[in-house]
Write a structure and sequence with these properties.
- The chain is α/β, with parallel strands linked by helices.
- The chain has a single domain, classed as TIM Barrel (Alpha-Beta Barrel).
- Helix content is about 45%, strand content about 15%.
- It contains eleven helices and eight strands.
- The protein has an eight-stranded parallel β-barrel with strand order 1-2-3-4-5-6-7-8, surrounded by six helices.
- The two termini are about 10 Å apart.
- Bound molecules: phosphoenolpyruvate (PEP).
- The site of phosphoenolpyruvate has 14 residues, from strand 8.
Length: about 260
């Protein structure tokens, strides 16, 4: 049975003060409840250590929103996997659509980062998803297949224990437009089949596939209730306890 993962991507938001307050509020929300779901927050790099100190003691995992694939050296502005491990990071989001489309990261770069992160002991949340024009041209599955094959090139079945997939239709990210539960389930079922074909049925059964794209308290339960949806990657609604708390609780209710 896959455990839900409720993950928050804070993107380039918060300050030291507001980020720490958010972490503290989330810690209060989950503390002592022995939750049947995993909770992860991914703040900007400068606040990782402070958020880890505040949220970590309540059992909330902390992840980065990016990393570099080289171990050290002359890579100005980059952050290595070891540096993230050093400050207590558990996970890293890779292949987010904003990095693919705004920062122009390609599958090859994402794959190098994915392998470095897994080898360095981080859980990877690998994001895949189609643009609106790709969906309208009926290319969703082809785009997902290409991003999965590219991002997971040379990643072994054993290493997949440290990989979570996030299906994030680009047209639903930060737009207020959510994929319908049926659209999400269809894409997730396709991704699970891809995992079974590329790896094994065990890998497909064990790998968590999160949905991301305008998840909020009002739609969380219906999306999380789909058979192949194993959690949520939440952007905007992860920035307040009032919104992220009920999304965590939706996962808790469905785990009962
Ligand atoms: C995201 O950034 O991964 C995301 C899904 O954002 P939002 O929830 O704001 O659509």
């Amino acid at each position: 049975m896959r455990r839900y993962l409720i993950a928050g991507n804070w993107k380039m938001n918060t300050s030291l003060e507001t980020g720490t307050a958010l972490a503290s509020g989330l810690a209060d929300h989950v503390r002592g409840r022995d939750l049947p779901v995993d909770v992860l927050v991914c703040p900007p790099f400068p606040y990782l250590a402070a958020v880890k100190a505040t949220a970590g003691e309540a059992g909330i995992s902390v992840g980065a929103q990016n990393c570099y694939f080289e171990a050290s050296g002359a890579f100005t502005g980059e952050v290595s996997v070891d540096m993230l491990k050093d400050i207590g990071c558990d996970s890293v989001i890779l292949g987010h659509s904003e990095r693919r489309h705004v920062l122009k990261e390609c599958d090859d770069m994402i794959n190098k980062k994915t392998k470095a992160a897994i080898e360095g002991g981080l859980q990877v949340v690998l994001c895949v998803g189609e643009l609106l024009e790709e969906r309208e041209a009926d290319k969703t599955e082809a785009v997902l297949d290409e991003q999965m094959a590219g991002g997971l090139k040379d990643v072994s079945a054993e290493q997949m224990a440290n990989v979570v997939i996030a299906y994030e239709p680009v047209w639903a990210i930060g737009t207020g437009k959510t994929a319908s539960p049926e659209q999400a389930e269809q894409a997730h079922a396709h991704l699970r089949k891809w995992l079974a074909d590329r790896y094994t049925s065990e890998v497909a059964e064990q790998t968590r596939i999160l949905y991301g794209g305008s998840v909020k308290p009002a739609n969380a339960k219906e999306l999380l209730g789909q058979q192949n949806v194993d959690g949520a990657l939440v952007g905007g609604a992860s920035l307040t306890v009032d919104n992220f708390g009920p999304i965590i609780d939706a996962g808790v209710e469905l785990s009962a």
